[in-house]
Specification:
Layout: H1 2-31, H2 49-124, E1 128-130, E2 136-138
Antiparallel strand pairs: 1-2
Helix pairs in contact: 1-2
Length: 140
């Protein structure tokens, strides 16, 4: 019974850890005030040629930096999703193992009850005698 309880507590603990991680990541993403806006809009028109070139190079550098940040963030999100999937697979594996262990325990308990019933039956019929120190004698 203790093994079953320990396994159950371990499964609950793992589930809580995974849920806490998911909530932490989503909370940080939600609270991030430095969100990246889509940068598909064309540069402003009507500026002089020199300022347009300077603005264009500044805008393109900013766009490159933004694209790099977007790629980094997308990479991090993909990593977190992969970890989450691994954790879920691991939890599923542990649940399967726990279910198998519980089934084995139930089978062992059933066999123990059958054995106890058999020993009690043999004692009642006088076929065997069990002493107080645990020795078993077969009566003839």
């Amino acid at each position: 019974m203790k093994k079953q309880l320990v396994a159950f507590i371990a499964a609950i603990f793992i589930t809580i850890c995974i849920a806490a991680g998911i909530f932490a990541v989503s909370g940080v993403a939600f609270a991030n005030s430095n969100g990246v806006q889509a940068s598909n809009a064309p540069a402003g028109q009507g500026a002089s040629a020199v300022s347009a070139v300077n603005a264009s190079s500044t805008v393109s550098q900013a766009q490159v930096l933004q694209q790099q940040q977007i790629q980094q963030l997308q990479s991090l999100v993909a990593q977190y999703q992969q970890r989450d999937q691994q954790y879920q697979q691991r939890e599923q594996k542990y649940q399967t193992q726990l279910n198998q262990a519980n089934a084995q325990l139930a089978q062992a308990q059933q066999q123990m009850q059958q054995f106890q019933s058999l020993v009690t039956f043999l004692q009642q019929r006088g076929i065997i005698t069990i002493t107080s120190d645990g020795q078993v004698y077969v009566n003839r």
